[in-house]
Amino acid sequence: AQKITQTQPGMFVQEKEAVTLDCTYDTSDPSYGLFWYKQPSSGEMIFLIYQGSYDQQNATEGRYSLNFQKARKSANLVISASQLGDSAMYFCAMREGWDNNDMRFGAGTRLTVKP
Amino acid sequence: NAGVTQTPKFRILKIGQSMTLQCAQDMNHNYMYWYRQDPGMGLKLIYYSVGAGITDKGEVPNGYNVSRSTTEDFPLRLELAAPSQTSVYFCASSYALGFRPYGYTFGSGTRLTVV
């Protein structure tokens, strides 16, 4: 079964506007972590933000915030004030349990920021 | 400040050939991982290691082998290359087990083509 689902293959956003990238996940483990990574056209994977299943508040890192809705099993990434350099592939990922080393990735969303 | 270093960056193999993808990290991370990324897809875990001398299979281990003789190095061996192994390979490392809020540090990737 698909553990991580990203339903938006591609998204467009106007420069300086905010954009939300969707991510839903499936797990029966009460302990898990959710991650977002950015992959620019150069190919490297860049860690953006993390949310633990027991965290009370939504994670924020600069212009990135994670809209964590535990009951709906969603962990959407919000990018505020989009910049041209934000154009990239974005991957949502999850690790289940406290001793699981298998981080599962979604298929990704390609974000294009328009000037 | 090297982080995770992967070599080579590109390689073309003929069917049936073997090769080793090198990965080294200088952050004293215990945990290291090998992922593959097929075109248009997310990453899938091939093998991982929780420390020197300890390795374990991930989601897609067939056709690969690994070793971890030191904390710093985690080479991935391809035996009898097949076209299905054409992919981009990422090595990653992280701090100790658990949901550290820094995610994984990825190398820049090795683009492998098997013809």
Give descriptors for this structure:
heterodimer, A: 115 residues, mainly beta, six-stranded mixed sheet, four-stranded antiparallel sheet, 12 strands, B: mainly beta, seven-stranded mixed sheet, globular
Explain this structure.
The complex is a heterodimer of chains A (115) and B (115). Chain A is an all-beta fold. In chain A, strand 5 and strand 6 (46-52) form a beta hairpin. Chain A has no helices and twelve strands. Chain A is globular and about 40 Å long. Chain A has strands at 4-5, 10-14, 19-21, 24-25, 32-39, 46-52, 60-61, 64-69, 74-79, 88-96, 104-105, 109-114. Chain B is an all-beta fold. Helix content of chain B is 0%, strand content 49%. Chain B is built from no helices and eleven strands. The mean pLDDT of chain B is 90.
Structural classification of chain B: mainly beta
Unreliable stretches of chain A (pLDDT < 50, length at least 5) are none
How far is the first residue's CA from the last residue's CA of chain A? 39 Å
What is the N-to-C order of secondary-structure elements of chain B (H for helix, E for strand)? EEEEEEEEEEE
Gyration radius from CA atoms of chain B, angstroms: 13 Å
Mean pLDDT of chain A: 92
Number of helices of chain B: 0
Fraction of residues in H or I helices of chain B: under 10%
